[in-house]
Amino acid sequence: MEAAFGEGALDAPGEEEPKRRGWFRSEPKGRRGRFTGRAKKALELSLRESLRLKSGQIAVGHLLLGVIREGEGLGVRVIVDHGLDLGAVRQAVEAKLA
Q: Is the predicted pLDDT of residue 84 greater than 70, yes or no?
């Protein structure tokens, strides 16, 4: 079980901290968080892109714009490795969102 679900998977539950709401809540010690620092940054930038474009929501296009704006993650490498220009992708996504 521990090989599949991690160390302590069969341990009895201990006293838990009060639950926090939202994506960025802290995880109990020893557990892996839901998002990496880079992923959190891309999500924050997605919100900024949505606000900049006055969209009122965060759509998939805003997420892509956040990934592009973050500029150093795997998403950007995939785009560049496929021979696409980041500026051109940004313009195309903004045109679709408009």
A: yes
